[in-house]
Design brief:
heterodimer; A: 102 residues; alpha+beta; Arc Repressor Mutant, subunit A; 4 helices; 3 strands; 12% strand; globular; B: 276 residues; mainly alpha; 8 helices; 83% helix; 0% strand
Amino acid sequence: MTQPLERLLRTLLADPSGHWHGYELMKTAKLASGTLYPMLARLQEQGLVTSEWEPVPAVAGRPPRKYYRLTGEGARVARRQLERAPRAGPARPAPRPGPAVS
Amino acid sequence: MSSREVAQRLASTLITRACRRLPDGAREDRLREWEAELGAILDDPGIRSPARRHAKAVLFAIGQRRTVRYLTRPTGARRLRAVTIRAAVAAAAAAIVLAAAAVALSPAADHAEYESSPAVAAEVYLALLATIAGLVCTALVAGLGLVGITRCLWNRQRRTAGTGARSGQRSARHDLVRATSRAWRNARTARGATAVFVAIVVCFTAAIVVSLLSQAAPNPSPAGSALGFLALAAGVTGLACATLLAALAVAGTATWLWRLAHGKPRPPPSRANPAR
């Protein structure tokens, strides 16, 4: 497992049921957009991550954003993979509000 | 126009340009997603400096070129073919450039024994380096070509065997096809060795013919130098093929000895293990 993937999985696993926007993931996992989005696409292809559009934009006047979250299988696989990877503690993302899901 | 607007317009342009390469279904979706993220980056309250926010937005947009490259990359056999072709083209271009450099520098090398200035020595050294690098590139191209041809033949044989299995289940012709394809599979190593042996013969013959031609050409001349280079390249490729053949022979002998020592017979060919 590559280090960027490990950082991404640790970030997602810090809040397995959470919804993450791309920019939030970039900031928390400290990844560049050109690294993060290909990984997200690959994880989506494998069914480990799913994405949805915000039904209502979190900020008025701004277009709705897409958020990503781990699937149940994704959380299981991520935990298993991270157990095998000997690394320091998990990433600690700042607490953030969830998306405005109606 | 404010600096925020400039950054947003620049980043939007970069994202739009990157998204052009995406297929129709994905283009609108990605464009919408990344444009929305752009707004979030430019309004990020966690970054105090506007200049940093603007730079982040532009970097975000630049990074999406890589994402698009990933999303539009060829996959499977197409990817392998694309990578092989790209490597072969790069190696061929490098070989041509280096051969030209070697030819251009070789007149200095021809007079090196009469002149011993540092400049001439440097030119001789560069010519030598260019020749070696060019030879390596030529050998690489030859190797890639050999691999490509072998893969093509192998795939064709597998397709033929597969078609036969599907269409002729009940016919005697099917049995013949199966027997032939099994024999073809069993003789895989022998076929590889034969191909390499033919390559050795061709390379050494070419090296001899071209070196004779280069001796016949007026010397020093660009044509003579180019022919000399080609002769050397053919010789080196032949040597590489000979090394490969020797490695195949050693590997085959070692496998045979190992099987003999462990008393394991060669496994019969099966559907689950079709490569045998």
